[in-house]
């Protein structure tokens, strides 16, 4: 986050910009796949770490933002 | 007199109708969160591209988180034009029990903020998106795979549950609740909510 923002928000922006008309739940799955692939390293975290989103949905219909 | 015609419900496969106003509320603590500005910029730009009307507040205190949400709800309810979607981004440090920490270090429960928006009459039956960029505890996920195998074995000896939270997708199709009100009579007041956490429960968000 220190240099370019958080993995989640930055990846979300990247994925939604690439396919703004896609189903949001599918796009979030793609965001999660990419975030899970990332290795996190940092000064307070000398070993490889992983992050994973949690997606909770009670949507009743497909949601497409464009 | 117009002849009566049954009002057709949209097909279950039909998308949410997003032809009305879209509103976004971005609440971000950027103090002592280096780089958080990049997230605000990225989300702001994205919301703008997706035609959301944006309200941005940086460095809210815990109380301001709540107040901003109340104000957001009241503004939406006061709109004369129909509202079709709300997006709320909550970005802050997080406490060990999933609390958000305001700029004053005080805690606010994200669930309370969700409930506040749930009361919004203008959003009945409309999708409500919550993005939570915050730690939800102190666990650091080492993942699984060859390089993590030694850590994984040590971890297995110490804990009865699996260490990685990968592939967690919780779909709640909660149909309980019987409030018959508003434009979506018969639907649960917990429906139409999409919550996305940057980390699994108990874990650090990077």
Describe this structure in words.
The complex is a heterodimer of chains A (66) and B (206). With 66 residues, chain A is of the alpha+beta class. Chain A is 39% helix and 18% strand. Chain A contains 2 helices and 3 strands. Chain A has helices spanning 7-18, 24-37, and strands at 40-42, 45-49, 54-57. Chain A has a two-stranded antiparallel ribbon with strand order 1-2. In chain A, helix 1 (7-18) crosses helix 2. The longest helix of chain A is centred in the middle third of the chain and has 14 residues, at 24-37. The mean pLDDT of chain A is 88. With 206 residues, chain B is of the alpha/beta class. Chain B is 24% helix and 21% strand. Chain B contains 4 helices and 9 strands. Chain B has helices at residues 36-49, 62-78, 110-118, 149-158, and strands at 21-28, 53-58, 83-91, 93-94, 100-101, 107-108, 128-133, 169-171, 193-197. In chain B, the strands form 2 sheets. In chain B, strands 2-1-3-7-9 form a 5-stranded parallel beta sheet, with helices on both faces. Chain B has a 3-stranded antiparallel beta sheet with strand order 4-5-6. In chain B, strand 5 (100-101) and strand 6 form a beta hairpin. In chain B, helix 2 packs parallel to helix 3. Residues 147-156 and 158-184 of chain B have low confidence and may be disordered. Classes of the chains: A alpha+beta (66), B alpha/beta (206). Chains A and B meet through helix 1, helix 2, strand 2 and strand 3 of A and helix 1, strand 3, strand 7, strand 8 and strand 9 of B. Strand 3 of chain A pairs antiparallel with strand 9 (193-197) of chain B.
